[in-house]
Amino acid sequence: xxxxxxxxxxxxxxxxxxxxxxxxxxxxxxxxxxxxxxxxxxxxxxxxxxxxxxxxxxxxxxxxxxxxxxxxxxxxxxxxxxxxxxxxxxxxxxxxxxxxxxxxxxxxxxxxxxxxxxxxxxxxxxxxxxxxxxxxxxxxxxxxxxxxxxxxxxxxxxxxxxxxxxxxxxxxxxxxxxxxxxxxxxxxxxxxxxxxxxxxxxxxxxxxxxxxxxxxxxxxxxxxxxxxxxxxxxxxxxxxxxxxxxxxxxxxxxxxxxxxxxxxxxxxxxxxxxxxxxxxxxxxxxxxxxxxxxxxxxxxxxxxxxxxxxxxxxxxxxxxxxxxxxxxxxxxxxxxxxxxxx
Length: 342
Description:
- This protein is α/β, with parallel strands linked by helices.
- Helices cover 33% and strands 28% of the residues.
- It has nine helices and 15 strands.
- α4 (82-91) packs parallel to α5 (106-119) and α5 runs antiparallel to α9 (312-331).
- The radius of gyration is 20 Å and the shape is globular.
């Protein structure tokens, strides 16, 4: 069987997530190559490219997009630049894997649809956790009824960051806990229940200096009385947890989101015999790099070799939930999700 040619990726910016996690992960793949990286400063781009062993370095994002050798763009720019530069990449004839959240609103995200369809280029929101075998397995457990009827998902995702210059603490460019890590809970809750929520209610505590939400807690109501309940924070101790509770069993993760690529993942399943976890069944998964799996799957999709995972419409649906949560903060009450579609 003839080996498929490697896809060539270009990375917009030298963001930490790109330099420390995504690029090294992609470089471990036999299916793709990181061919270029861009920064607003060519010296910095050259330095980073040299450190990572990337062949080309550009001093502007436009120069990277003009490179005819690049097949796919990875966009890890600050949140307010996700849509503008993804649109430019599509118009340049590139597929785009865009970091979460894909936009600052569903209305903004919808701008990508027409251009993606017109250019024939794919766009996907980068939720790497969807590709980890532990999440593939838990979706299987939910779908095959092993947990019974799943009625509740409880999630939390917290870390501590007080740096006023960090993009996560900049309100003007889309910072805050909900945009940065709360979106994981929204996306994975929708995956688990396999449908869209009906309404949401939220409480946010905002940093008095930054204006960003430093602690957000929400209830998201799905059809048939099911609930996603989550909290996310930028100024609490680093922690993360997901509990999926059904009528027959409960599943939880040792590390649901930031599972290390060199460590085995563990999924705990409990039938409720012992409330304190004495009857836990532990399923262990070999170490994998979920960022690599994410890139490989999207590359397969773009090159017509298969590829699974949510499309752009799914990303827009996730943004409708995020919009509703922000509206709930303003109204201080329950808000219907995407009322125009109901």
